[in-house]
Write a structure and sequence with these properties.
rod-shaped, alpha+beta, 8 strands, 4-stranded antiparallel beta sheet, Immunoglobulin-like, 1 helix
């Protein structure tokens, strides 16, 4: 009886040794490749009146004391955060406006003209900075 169990166990372990790697490879090949962000779905009619900031890839519309920001292309930086600062670096007086995930419109109140800074929390570095000027009317 013990001999029959040993033969059965040997057969089962050999079968598992061949089947499990094959199932793993088949599972990895069956995965769908997805992008972390959906492709840019912002149409030109939605962005009328927005000015493109070249370095950050953001569309910005300014008015007295506030700005409207919309990403015009997907941001490749991991965990992007948007800051406002008087200088083009993060230091004393820099103000966190919020995260920049997705492609939706955001509105922020800022005290004066300055720099919009995209900071990657995942890389722990400044990805881009653009100067913005506040105006009384829309640009």
């Amino acid at each position: 009886m013990i001999r029959r169990l040993r033969v059965l166990h040997r057969f089962v372990f050999v079968a598992l040794a061949l089947a499990l790697p094959a199932l793993l490879v088949a599972g990895l090949r069956a995965r769908r490749h997805t992008l972390p962000f959906p492709p840019a779905t912002v149409s030109t009619s939605d962005t009328s009146g927005f000015r493109l900031l070249e370095k950050t890839g953001l569309g910005v519309r300014t008015s007295s004391g506030s700005i409207e920001v919309i990403p015009l292309r997907p941001l490749t930086a991991p965990d992007p955060l948007l800051y406002w600062s008087r200088k083009d670096s993060l230091g004393e007086g820099a103000m966190l406006l919020g995260p920049l995930e997705g492609m939706s419109l955001r509105r922020y109140s800022i005290p004066e003209s300055g720099y919009l800074i995209v900071y990657s929390l995942g890389r722990r570095e400044i990805m881009a900075a653009d100067r913005i000027e506040l105006s009384e009317g829309r640009q």
